[in-house]
Amino acid sequence: MTMDSIAHLRATRRYITSMMLNLPIQPTETSVATLLVMLDHFSAYPDEYLELLNDNQFSTRKTPRL
Q1: Angle of the 3-22 helix axis to the 46-62 helix axis, nearest 10
Q2: Chain mean position to CA 3
Q3: C-alpha to C-alpha distance for 14 and 47, rounded to whole angstroms
Q4: Cα–Cα distance between 22 and 15 in angstroms, integer?
Q5: What is the DSSP letter of 63?
Q6: What percent of the chain has pLDDT over 70?
Q7: Burial profile 23-48: b = 16 or more Cβ within 10 angstroms, e = fewer
Q8: What is the rounded distance in angstroms from the CA atom of residue 13 to the CA atom of residue 4?
């Protein structure tokens, strides 16, 4: 495996992790097929993705810190 392939795999993992952390979904309950459908949907409707991000960030800020 080349360094370029390894870098590509690591970048893919970072992107997927970032998406999963920003959306209200459970990674252990999401199949690859479902993730691909979500990516296709949000690519077609980016405003919906941004709306979910904003809703998620707003609800995270409202939770009290311990």
Answers
A1: 60
A2: 25
A3: 22
A4: 11
A5: S
A6: 85
A7: beeeeeeeeeeeeeebeeebeeeeee
A8: 14
Question: For residues 52 and 24, is the Cβ–Cβ distance under 8 A?
Answer: yes
Rounded to 5°, angle at Cα 42 from 39 and 44 = 110
Q: Is 2 exposed, middle or buried (0-12, 13-18, 19+ CB in 10 A)?
A: exposed
pLDDT tens figures, 8-28: 999 999 999 988 888 888 888
- The position carrying tokens 């992790």 is 17
- Residue type at 30? T
24 secondary structure, DSSP code: T
